[in-house]
Amino acid sequence: xxxKNTIWLLLFLAFASSTIAQEVETSVVSETDQKPLRxxxxxxxxxxxxxxxxxxxxxxxxxxxxxxxxxxYTYCPDVCPMVLSHLKKGMLDLKEQAKDVQxxxxxxxxxxxxxxxxxxxxxxxxxxxxxxxxxxxxxxxxARQYRVGYFKQYVESVEGYFMAHIDAVFLVDQEGRYIGxxxxxxxxxxxxxxxxxLLDSG
Length: 202
Prior knowledge:
Layout: H1 2-25, E1 48-50, E2 56-58, E3 66-72, H2 79-94, E4 101-107, H3 115-121, E5 130-132, H4 136-145, E6 151-154, E7 161-164, E8 168-172, E9 178-183, H5 184-201
Parallel strand pairs: 3-4, 4-5
Antiparallel strand pairs: 1-2, 3-8, 6-7, 8-9
């Protein structure tokens, strides 16, 4: 059973990684003529989830800001802290422009990630980062909008299970439109460039 789970995990991550590479490539900006970033009308979209204070938050309230959306979970041992650390560095690199960027951390483990837990965990990396949770159905619906795949991987440990997922960060413009997704381990420089392009054009 463990071997079978490992095979499925590898196939999932390989497929997801190739998809990410394709989507990022389609949104390349020419440095010479500064063509606008491509907008994917069939991906993303608005959503409502539970915020740090236990109240519903709509993504619409962040209109006018660039949004960076990441799907992760607080029990994540490595990938999530790494991504949030990369995003923190990105905010520091943006300097004054960071005030016009909102990072949203959406939990893919709502059974364990309460709004209180997210309130303690997410802003630890950067004060303006916001953690969102909801019911299993709520999270599944938003994940489908952004074509995010994840699943439980049961392990013999105190945690009981981990969530298999990828480190994709989704870029959404000031009008709530999906621009692309990026792997912070390799695409951080491009992500910051695209954010600055959106901010400069907005």
